[in-house]
Design brief:
Helix content: 10-25%
Number of strands: 6
Radius of gyration: 14 Å
Shape: globular
Amino acid sequence: MDYERFRTFRNNNNPFGKRLGIYVEELRPGYARAVKTVTEEDLNPVQVPHGGVYFSLADTACGSAMVAYGNVCVTINCSFSFLKSAKAGDKLTAEARELQNGRSVSVLEARVTGESGELLAVGTFTFRRLEKKIEL
């Protein structure tokens, strides 16, 4: 599979990700890296990024790592911990790595870090692989 073409397809066909400014930089089966720069619009009433920013970035990275196998997949469960806050202007990176690859259910871990590498959030995501192939 042409993973560069697949990555471009993912970035161009993700309206929610585009709205949030999430961009997949790298993907291959079982691994993906996605990035996002925190904007003023991402802040909650206490002026730190809303938890959904971290979660959406991590879920996008994990989903990208899963679909790199070539099948449509959906998140079916997640455990997510918020550890530290970023601020507006910070670039966030989510790296997803597969922990277990099953025939229909797989588990991945995502680590969200800030610009200096500090760990901001971590999550374990469970995905169901559907029988539908992705067509580019």
